[in-house]
Amino acid sequence: MDQKVSTPPKWLRSVLASICHEDLLEAVEGDLFELFTQHQSKYGRVPASFFYLFNVIQFMQPFSFNSPRFYRSIYESYIRVILRSMKRKKVTTAMNVFGMALTFLVCMAIFSYVSHEMSFDKYHQHADKIYRATYRFQNANGYDIHWARMNQGWVNELPNSFPEIDKLVRFQSFRTRDIQIGSENFRENYAYAVDKEVFDVFDLEIIAGSKAESLTPNTVVLTTSTAHKYFGGEDAIGQTMEISNDYGVKELYKVTAVIKDPPSNTHLPITLLTSINSEEERAGWAYVYLLLKDKANIQSIQEQMPEFIADHESLSEGDQLTVNFQPLTSIHLHSQLSREIAANGNIKYVIIFIFVGLFLLIIGMVNFINLNTIQSLDRIKEFGLRQSLGATKGEMKIHMVLEALVLGLFSVAIAFVGFALGLKYFEQFVRHRLVFSNIEMILGLMTLAIVIAFFSAFITSISMMRIDFRQISNWFKLSSNHKSVQKYILLGLQFSAMLLLITSMVIVQRQFSYMTQKNLGYNGDQILVLRNNNRDVMRKYESLKNELKQLSGVLDVSAVMEVPSVPVKDQGPVTVLGDPENSISADIQIMDLNATDVLGIEFLAGGQLPQYLQQQFDLPDSILFEGFETKPRAYLINESACQKLGWSPEEAIGKEINWSIGEFSLKHGPVMGVIKDFHQESLNEKIRPLVITYEPLWVRNMLVKINTDNDFAMHSSIEELWKNTFPDQPLEISYLDQELENQYQQEKKQLELISAFTFIAILIAFIGLYGMMAYTIKLRIKELAIRRVLGSNWLNALRLLSREYILLALASMLLIFPLAYWLMKGWLANYAYHISINGTGFLLSGGLLFLLIIVTLTYQITVTTNTNPSTVLRGD
Amino acid sequence: MFIIVDKGEKYMKGSSIGEFEELVLLSVAINGDNAYSLSILEELKTHMKRKVLISSVHKVLVRLEEKGYLKSYMGDPVAVRGGKAKKLYELTADGKEVLEATRELRESMWSAIPQMQWTKK
Known about the structure:
Oligomer: heterodimer
Order of helices and strands of chain B: HHHEEHH
Strand content of chain A: 15-25%
Structural class of chain B: alpha+beta
Largest sheet of chain B: 2 strands, antiparallel
Number of strands of chain A: 25
Strand order of the largest sheet of chain B: 1-2
Largest sheet of chain A: 13 strands, mixed
Distance between the termini of chain B: 66 Å
Largest interface: A-B, 25 and 24 residues
Number of helices of chain A: 28
Strand content of chain B: 5-15%
């Protein structure tokens, strides 16, 4: 037998030594050693070590545990002492717990918000195998569009060409749809015509009806809330309704199933799904989703796409068409394409939130540690006594950890109650239910509290352990311990976090108010929009216009294809007659002749469109279409288009241009006027070249300029007129300026949240600073009293005490301001139109910090100097 | 500040013992001068023909000592135990008494079983 004696792992032996009662330790150590040697000779060292570990774990039992009763009472007494001291120092404890609880509360709010944002679409069983096909088109003129949807017919061929693709689902007819049930009219967004396979790709839970029948021709699937809206408590299955298609034609549909409302964390909201009724209908614009087979790789499909596109599409020289596949789960935060289904979130905001949370945590943690250290230093006599009575350093450390832990867990408890009570209001504020994991949050918070407690105890012990308690005189020397390096590091960290937070938030706020107040190039005030009208309505536009004008308070009525604030959906090439080389890509906007007046759009040159464009509205569409290509045209162009074409505004007048999209080509006609650029889309988008003309077939929205404050009377008189004219058509009416604000709704909410959190961060920092300074003054109270007796006033005291803080603040500024400048410059570069960074943010944050220091100190000094110096000095 | 309960007070003398306790007491008796945790473990394993955890043996030994049925003393350090001593146990008068009492109890009950009853199928 191998005589070489190897021993069990040393660390395991020390674990055993630490858990096992000393009366038993000798015997147990010996036993386990014997067993270890037996096991080792039988099975080898490693298994023997495992047996040893297993045996050690066995001794974690009450009978063998390191004196359970004795320790329990020690801990009880610790806790009792801690609670007593908390009671004695009510203000400091309250400040500490309040600050920490507030920090935790905000962290919880940020956690719930951020995890909601990150959870989008992950609930689908096949989430990681679903991709959305997006469309990108570029040409030599620098024309570059990237859309979330596509209208290429060949996209349907994808599953045939690529065996890796299991299923393809189209979401088409996504524009608002009119629904008629009996005599009731509804208008729905997020109502799509979809392929039957939608149930195999997405997780749509059917709660009534059958999957087999659903989405066969002329059937409709409702969500629970839609079903409830239409039929109340009645059974929706088997009911029929008329639903309009893309051309405004109503068809009869039968309800075959009701699905559960999709959760709030999806980029694809649904109100109802109609069938695609024939293979011919399976065309046009659609959001296209692909389900890959197991283990298929999207990369290989992506690589073969250029070849596939070349097979199906003949592109002219210089044109480039790409199809990109977006993973389903990344759409919400990472996809900022044109024509998204609904406004997506933005990863940038998520990152800002995480940063704010981190900074807040730093500020809160520093507070906690500082206040805790102060509290311990205040009890130096207690610690001295403890140690002289035989407490070891280890026991004192345990005491400190426990003290911090009690405070930390107390704060967690308060924060948790606060969160549970406030979640409802928070959800109301962000306007949707938040989806997040409670367990993750609680565990995370507990871990955080424990880590902070240990860290705090560690920092405190550094201060405490430097004191030599054997010298009784040291028990009374408080001031020698308060100037420590770690205090300055912590305070500097807090100052820096505060400065960075405030500076960047000021810049973010300025950018945002710039965006909402920037001149849009038109005036949206006092304009009512009658939205999304179909041809049945627009055919009667001229007569309705006259009737609307009769109403009191109505100044003018006009019509446009797309209301400003809604992106224009059609872009195409513009050619110049007699100059074939000069061609650009431009959006088209259709406007009634008076729309520039109604919207207050300014002209740089020329004037309105000519009268001859405004003809025979009420003819049947087929006749209007016949003359579509040959009809005489005239155009307005915007400044950007004018520049792109290389003309000055004056030169442009009278030039013959045309515009086309696909097979629709408008005849060449003269440029009648050049208008100033205006923001058709949100300020996040750059203004693109735009061509404006009037074509009765293409207007969909009416603008009513009003001059009255009586909204209610205005609404009801318009409604009455509408009901009399179009008993079968739903009326969608809104204020243009409100629509404009809605564009920024999401960003506004997020910014309000960020500002609120920043404010809380400042508040917490203030609490900490206040406590810290109160302590500094307390240490030097006798010194101050003597100085006062010798003739110093509060200003001298302020100068004396504020020096270290001011210097620290200056050092933090030196470090943080360049960093803040660099970070914010990068952030602003994301916006097409943005402010330049000026001194405001820096001045404000620096000023605020100084103010905070001076105000707290002044207050404290005033309180101190109000007491008679003799009272202070009498003590010794 | 805190009260430590005297270990002996917790258990009443003459209280009965469980089966595993009885077996451990018997193993102590069998092993004589070398009655310590591992030898008892081996004894139990051979007689009971099942696995016994070392911690269970220790647990019972501690309890039996608290009850006053066993007394312990430390042996000499041994190399094979990594230089640690054995904790050796021996029965006290009470321990012997309680073993005998259990045995008598069993025997008197066994003898009370009628032969007929036992062989009946």
